[in-house]
Amino acid sequence: MDDRIIGILEIGGGQLGRMLVEAAHRLNIKTVILDPDPDSPAKQVNSSKNHINGSFLNFDDILSLSERCNILTIEIEHVDIKALKHIFLNGKVKVHPSPNTIEIIQDKYLQKLHLTKHGNPTIESISIKNTLEDIRLAGEKLGYPFMLKSRTMAYDGRGNFKIDSLESAYSSLSVFENVSLYAERWVPFMKELAVIVVRNEEGVIGSYPVVETVQSDNICRLVYAPARVSFTVSENAKRVAEKAIQCFSGAGVFGVEMFLVTNGDIIINEVSPRPHNSGHYTINACSISQYESHIRAVLNLPFPSDSFNFLTFKTFAIMLNLIADDLKVEYMEICRKALIVGGSSIYLYGKKEQRRGRKMGHITIVASSMSEAEYKLQQILQSSKISLSCFSSKEIFSYEKSPIVAIIMGSDSDLPTMKSAIEIFKKFDVSFVGPDIISAHRTPRKLVEFSSTAILNGYKVIIAGAGGAAHLPGMVASMTTLPVIGVPVKGSSLDGVDSLYSIVQMPKGIPVATVAIGNSTNAALLALRIIGITDNRVRFLLDEYTRNMETDILLKSKKLQEIGWENYEHNK
């Protein structure tokens, strides 16, 4: 594919380097590794004799690596920048991303200033000294709580300290002794998002889907791909991430971590100039993984137009980080459980030392819907006899699911009819929004707003109950391409026949599915059948529901034959 050799600077035990090597192998591209451990994760999957047992902080070791490759890249940004600049200026070996980019990003405070200078939304930060007086002044300016952070060598939660009050700052003074610091305003956020952005030598060429990360103890535990947010939020996050990377130079993939705050804005938390933990899912769920994208980008190889998409429109994934605990064996129990759960792929990094809080591997679950992926995750975690301090079922599964069904009605008098649909969705554990009252005649602006944003809000089906003139289902269907199911509601006159005729007689081009008068149960079941086309979990539950109905009828038939029709009515 390419006879150039890529040199990779990695930290001892670097799993990112390992997965970069694996991606390069498939393209028959040679790699050489700089790592202090002769049996590091990356070296385990590459038997080359050209590897160097040295440090990414050692000037001479980095120069030695450059003599054995054509392109130098990183799996961690905290490297000796003087060595990279020396190699870059020499011109014989390319360095990606550029030393200037790495230098800016490795100092998180400089990174904030750089992003802000180029018009990117960031969190207010101030540089401070490691003194109680500076911390006091930071508290006066930023308010409590605020974050006290190390400017360099901070990753996986290291180097972050929450300051709740001046009194709580005393313990941070010893933790951050002889460390350059900055203070950051506390941001109340709803979700943490991340985007992997790909940049070649000419500039940004695209980004992967927006994902949602779930953190505990400042370490990423779970990644939901795609993020459980609206289309509008997702597109805004992609735009913010891509714009941020445009202000840097050099090729490769970049991880952009962001906060979704309560007013709906996106704020950048930090940028990483390398493959990112939040992008592990791309190995199984996307056309090209972030690791292959990094290899292609630094070599300036071409990309197909759909490189960063999910494999199909119904591909969903959850990535679970495997974190070592004190007992050292518990994460392996999770792996053994994952072996029998379909759609699960296990990646163990080959790390020897299993210290508490260390990332030892990950599991990626791929499914046809997010609810199916969550169900499989529950099988892996909750069906095992595991009690992990770093995994909490409440922490993992308490996050609100994005609604995929919207239930609306023309009047509050329709509520008794629509309750049956609600019970069905609860029974099937399908997330929904509503019921809400939207009158086609009395709240036309609300109708237009709801219908025009339904797709952006992530709904897959709309159920609309209406009586009398019953214009609501048809009007909604005229403003969205989502499936609309109309429920005729029995009114005070004409027994709902007028509503049935109104809903069923839509003009050509405005399809509305119509169920029997007052039968919102069937509306919900029809919605589930539509959802079940791409959701195996829902389809399985529908099959079970149908079998239970059959069993119920057969039991009634048997009882009727046993006791006779004369006694049946009195012995149901």
UniProtKB/TrEMBL annotation:
Keywords, alphabetical: ATP-binding, Decarboxylase, Lyase, Nucleotide-binding, Purine biosynthesis
Name of protein: Phosphoribosylaminoimidazole carboxylase
Lineage: Eukaryota, Fungi, Dikarya, Ascomycota, Taphrinomycotina
EC number: 4.1.1.21
Catalytic activity: 5-amino-1-(5-phospho-D-ribosyl)imidazole-4-carboxylate + H(+) = 5-amino-1-(5-phospho-beta-D-ribosyl)imidazole + CO2
GO biological process, one term: 'de novo' IMP biosynthetic process
Pathway: Purine metabolism; IMP biosynthesis via de novo pathway; 5-amino-1-(5-phospho-D-ribosyl)imidazole-4-carboxylate from 5-amino-1-(5-phospho-D-ribosyl)imidazole (carboxylase route): step 1/1
Membership in a protein family: In the C-terminal section; belongs to the AIR carboxylase family. Class I subfamily.
GO molecular function: ATP binding; metal ion binding; phosphoribosylaminoimidazole carboxylase activity
Stretches assigned to the ATP-grasp domain: 112-299
Keyword Ribosomal protein among record annotations: no
Keyword ATP-binding in annotation: yes
Family matches, as Pfam families: AIRC, ATP-grasp, PurK_C, RS_preATP-grasp-like
Enzyme class name: lyase
Organism annotation: Pneumocystis jirovecii
Domain of life: Eukaryota
SMART domains found in the cross-reference section: AIRC
